[in-house]
């Protein structure tokens, strides 16, 4: 999915991602680079990022199906 007018893919600054939370659940968000969206697993919503700006309005979010949700990130441990 293209970010905006220049056709480049959207990205979110990792520091910004640490600060953002779902406005409905106040829970964490996961970045989906394929679709250029921030995913709230608990709310099952995907918030769009337009021109590098996260649109954190529930009215702008799309409902995410269970199969669309990214698998939880794996934590790497010793060994």
Explain the overall architecture:
The N terminus is likely disordered. Helices cover 8% and strands 22% of the residues. 18% of the residues are buried. The chain has 79 residues and is mainly β. It is globular and about 25 Å long. The chain has a domain of 54 residues: N-terminal domain of TfIIb, CATH 2.20.25.10. Strands 1, 2, 3, 4 and 5 form a five-stranded antiparallel sheet that branches.
Compressed to H and E, one letter per element, the order equals: HEEEEE
**CATH top level class name of the domain at 14-67:** Mainly Beta
Task: Briefly note the CATH topology name of the domain at 14-67.
Answer: N-terminal domain of TfIIb
Number of strands: 5
- Spatial gap, N to C terminus: 37 Å
Please count the helical segments: 1
**How is the main sheet built?**
5 strands, antiparallel
Sum up the overall morphology in one term. globular
Based on the model shown, name its key terms.
79 residues, mainly beta, N-terminal domain of TfIIb, 5-stranded antiparallel sheet, 1 helix, 22% strand, disordered N terminus
Concise structural overview:
The chain contains one helix and five strands, in the order αβββββ.
What is the element layout, followed by pairings?
Layout: H1 14-19, E1 30-32, E2 37-40, E3 45-50, E4 53-54, E5 62-63
Antiparallel strand pairs: 1-2, 2-3, 3-4, 3-5
